[in-house]
Amino acid sequence: LVAAMRKLIIMINTILKRHTPWNEAQQHGC
User: Fold this and answer.
1) From CA 9, how far away is CA 13, in angstroms rounded?
2) What is the pLDDT of residue 6?
3) Count of alpha carbons within 13 Å of 27, Cβ hemisphere only?
4) Nearest 5°: CA angle at 2, between 15 and 12?
5) d(CA 5, CA 11)
6) What digits encode the pLDDT tens for the residues 1-30?
7) pLDDT at site 28
8) Where does the chain show beta strands of DSSP type E?
Protein backbone atom coordinates (compact mmCIF):
# COMPACT_ATOMS: atom_id res chain seq x y z
CA LEU A 1 0.00 0.00 0.00
CA VAL A 2 2.78 2.42 0.94
CA ALA A 3 4.69 1.57 -2.24
CA ALA A 4 1.59 2.25 -4.34
CA MET A 5 1.02 5.61 -2.64
CA ARG A 6 4.68 6.55 -3.09
CA LYS A 7 4.50 5.63 -6.78
CA LEU A 8 1.39 7.78 -7.18
CA ILE A 9 3.09 10.73 -5.48
CA ILE A 10 6.08 10.39 -7.81
CA MET A 11 3.75 10.42 -10.83
CA ILE A 12 1.98 13.54 -9.53
CA ASN A 13 5.31 15.24 -8.86
CA THR A 14 6.46 14.46 -12.40
CA ILE A 15 3.27 15.99 -13.83
CA LEU A 16 3.58 19.05 -11.59
CA LYS A 17 7.20 19.57 -12.70
CA ARG A 18 6.00 19.92 -16.30
CA HIS A 19 3.55 22.71 -15.42
CA THR A 20 5.50 24.48 -12.65
CA PRO A 21 9.22 25.31 -12.42
CA TRP A 22 11.47 23.20 -10.21
CA ASN A 23 12.02 26.04 -7.71
CA GLU A 24 8.28 26.36 -7.05
CA ALA A 25 7.91 22.62 -6.46
CA GLN A 26 10.93 22.61 -4.14
CA GLN A 27 9.37 25.32 -1.96
CA HIS A 28 6.66 22.87 -0.85
CA GLY A 29 9.38 20.51 0.42
CA CYS A 30 8.51 16.83 0.46
Assistant:
1) 6
2) 96
3) 5
4) 5
5) 10
6) 899 999 999 999 888 787 666 666 566 655
7) 60
8) none
